[in-house]
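tool_log.txt
---
The assistant was asked to compare two proteins side by side. It first ran the structure predictor on the initial sequence, then on the second. Raw inputs and outputs are pasted verbatim so the downstream comparison step can read them without reformatting.
(1)
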Amino acid sequence: MKIVILDGFTAQPGDLSWQALEELGTLTVYDRTLPHETVTRAADADIVLTNKVVISREVMDQLPKLRYIGVLATGYNVVDIQAASQRGITVTNVPAYSTESVAQMVFAHLLTVTNRTEHYAIANREGRWSRNPDFCYWDFPHTELAGKTFGIVGLGNIGQRVAQIALAFGMKVKAMSSKPTLPAGIEKVSWEELLATSDILSLHCPLTERTHHLINSDTLRQMKSTAILINTGRGPLVDDQAVALALSEGRLSAFCADVLTEEPPSTENPLLKQPNAFITPHIAWASREARIRLIQVATDNVRAFLDGKPQNVVTI
């Protein structure tokens, strides 16, 4: 059984191991694979694992031996699911492995905006506090989270965990969700009410045709000018240009994102130049603990497939 990992570096840059997967077949791991290299590298593979390398219908057409595609992530839009289903190729994902880490990143971003601890730490290393005439100083207004309204779009595993943490901070939590009933403490509201009343709005919904550019020039006009927008979901949920303009015109207080439409982003992306845009390089998922779970579940998925009892299947 030949197993090929097309882009293993981000999940396992050298601090973990693929040993358990090696025990299931002949394993070849590539750190990165460019689009024109995909077919050549996967040519003899029965099993292919991918994180961001696209496995399209055209790629599958050139891989007659391929029986299984394991996505090293929760989202699986890099694979043409319809084409895989038509060819009898099983596709699996790794659900919920990064829930705690992503929820933690949401609040790391939020607290960066409300407390600016890194700003002060850097300033004080340079002697700012030592030169100060008073016992304290502040360069930004500090915001207390208790009593603020935390809005959530999408109440999957991550959205629900974020809601729990927001409630622990003493915030009022509102959500837009397809679920008929919501967990205790979370108020279900319309999209219009969520936009109008949220002091913090955090995006946790899937990327679909309907949610593409969910945040755009029109929806930004419906938000409070003092609002903080957080996106740790998918980059294209947000119109980068519209958010950058809202920030520059003072119609949005801050934008926090771990994802952008294009990754890595162009140096011309206007968000990178906005002082109130706080951008991290798609690392919310990447704690050591989360990556250990990712590799374990991905391996278990392959083992279950080989045993004839596939799990975490996303094909139709």
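(2)
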Amino acid sequence: MGKDYYNTLGVEKGATDEEIKKAFRKLAHKYHPDKPTGDEQKFKEVNEAYQVIGNTEKRKQYDQYGATFGQQGGFGGGMNWEDFMRATRQGGGGANFDFGVDLGDIFGDLFGFGGGRSRGGRGRGRDIQVDVELTFKEAVFGVEKDLHLTKNNACAVCSGSGAEPGSDRKKCDTCHGQGQVRVVQRTILGDMQSARVCTACSGAGDIPEKRCKHCSGAGVEKSSTSLTVKIPAGIDNGSSIRLTGKGEYGGPGSSAGDLYVAVHVHEDKRFVRQGDDILTEDTISYPQAVLGDTIDIETIDGTKQLVIPSGTQSHQQFRLKGLGVPHLRGSGRGDQYVRVKVDVPKKPSRHAKKLIEELKNELQ
């Protein structure tokens, strides 16, 4: 019976390369023998599956031959288990075998292997989120909102460098400017080399010659920030706006993270949004339904008139073109749909009954 590599990785046959890679990362992390949840046999199976369907050509062969894949050459010149574990013990080393797996990339993310690449530097600060509440009308037409938040910003005294004004930064003596140090751990698989962020410079690769007195060399201070965000017309409840570089500052050698503005739109009893259209209801009398009339309709743009033709049925819907929500992408607006309900008297008078009876005879 042929092996089901898709099932081993827990992905569908039509999964994308990124989905397969993500599944492999997750399972490799779970079953790695050096982990508390480790299982060497399952780790082997996961590795074998990824060697095949993680490579475009091998995957095509596997999909074509299925259970007889092994008879058609199997892994071919691919990496065997011993090669695989030797590469992981060496930290990946940037090894890229013929099935297209870069261990330095995959296991560098999972277990901290350097992969022969410089991973120094702090990268970027933390992303943060704030919530903004809007009225229905503000969401339809857009609005500007002032935000006030307290977060980690670059130190106002040293401008985020961590160095006392007038002094400079120098190469870190611990990591020699790499931002990371290599350590060797003894495991059941042998000595395993990995890279860790340098604690002396926090990954920046350099340190202040003289630390800023205000932030103690961190380059970061918690302070209040005020900014104005423009909410675009047509935004919907649950949407978010990304403000690049407006998140928290991570310290010397880093850039600021992003600020996400989560939008919450209050409901409006008068209007219901459906995509870019607005739905409303109105009530007309029985004579208006029979004879027709012109009535006032409340819209997001104010009061408009709607012509009710004679013979209108209850729950009949009318369209007011261009009175809906502006399209968030592109020009124009949606429409407003008005559903009318005919108000039939529950206890009509004798005179009304007589007139209705006459009308009934007339219509027949």
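---
observation on (2): Confidence is low (pLDDT under 50) at residues 71-79, 89-105, 108-121. Residues 17-31 form the longest helix (15 residues).
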